[in-house]
Specification:
The protein has 16 helices and 18 strands. By secondary structure, the protein is an alpha/beta fold. The longest helix has 24 residues.
Length: 524
Amino acid sequence: MRKKTDFLIIGTGIAGLTYALKVAPYGKVCIVTKGEAVESATRYAQGGIAAVMYTPDSYEKHIRDTMIAGDNLSDPEIVRITITESTERIQELIEWGVAFDKDRSGKYDLAKEGGHSEFRVLHHKDQTGAEIENVLLQRVRENKNIEIFENHFAIDLITQHHLDGEVGPGSDEEIVCYGAYVLNKANHQILTLLAKTTMVATGGAGNVYATTTNPPVATGDGIAMVCRAKGKIENMEFIQFHPTSLFNPAETPSFLITEALRGSGAVLKTRTGKEFMQKYDSRLSLAPRDIVARAIDNELKISGDEFVCLDARHLDKKVILNHFPAIYAKCLSIGIDMTKEMIPVVPAAHYTCGGIAVDRHAKTTIRNLYASGECSSTGLHGANRLASNSLLESLVFSHRAAFDAVKTMQNSKFKNGVPDWNAEGTVFNEEMILITQSLKELQGIMTNYVGIVRSNLRLKRASDRLEIIQKETEELYQKSVLTEKICELRNLISVAGLIIQMATNRKESRGLHHSIDYPGHYGE
């Protein structure tokens, strides 16, 4: 089966949906998502979206906070672009119908999170992402120019590699994207989807680790696809671990305890009730995430405990019920009344700061291909993302991409001669245990050797172990009728390899990449 569209979008989070709404007036839009459209990392974002709204806050303050959190590896030009365009993009969300919380005076009720010098985080209780996702999705479904293919898995981008051999390093020919091969999960047929422009908005790769706050769909698909197409990937060593996910080992994904709770006064303590952040940073429980996560990791190594605690018992119950109803209900569901008991928390893989390298218009190094959201690397986050800057980044760069892509689409043509997917000689793989066991091994390797604290020895061991799994999986992939699970495993292995390689190449401790072989001080 073959289909043509002006704008192809892979992913239905905030990045994909805002881009779709902006390009829809100019041509036909096709959105591909591997699950239901509502299932994205955006939906799980609790805390909110950072933007400068009122004095005494200013763009300069937000810029400075972002640069400090990123350990001065952020691109200053990109940081300035993102922050100075923040207010306008927020106003657009409000016009579309997103209901951010207001105080009694009618002003937006702004929260403060780790690393922020002012109150600037807009929120909808502790379910901001769900509110944004629902509003955007409703708008997209109402647009006659936009078609959504749910339960369709993007296997590979279509480039010259599928037409006339290898293109890449050492070649003078520019790589061009002509669309994507997409698996219809219902009937196992592979659709050849030709597009004048393609947007990768596939989210992050948290499931490369055993414990993550990311939904199961976050398997690094876009990053792996662009890597296979010889596009540039960068900064993958910077994986952010959220310091406070709810300790509940039976549950996947891990339930996030938003940083905004610490912003409201909750304090990190050991299981015995002792505060410990004073040993690591003067900002205490509101230090940037990399510092807090490493501090918790260190405390757990010292104590041998499985978790530390977040103490919100001293907070006004009305504040908890009004601002954190989902967290309160979740804790109650596992027998914890957070107004009377401390919440057990543990760090979990949360955000991929690096990814597909893009410019200020979200253009990748492959022509006609854009990337936005967590799968991209704009230069905004540097070595560590500032809390609540991620949704903002998606808004700003999907907006910029849309303007550029409309011009690109008008000057592009569909590529003739693109072959259909060749599945000749493949058979259904009935041994699911091969895939599930390899995934467990992969997640164990990454969690134990490439986690919050690393070393050269651990990275070498991870690389050696991964090589075996990669070889076995590739052999299985080549002879199997394609399924979502085998493709996801292959993508996660690719992403794991990129993380290990880039972590090995960084001969310093910087932000989220902390190596005992290159020691530095917390926060350096």
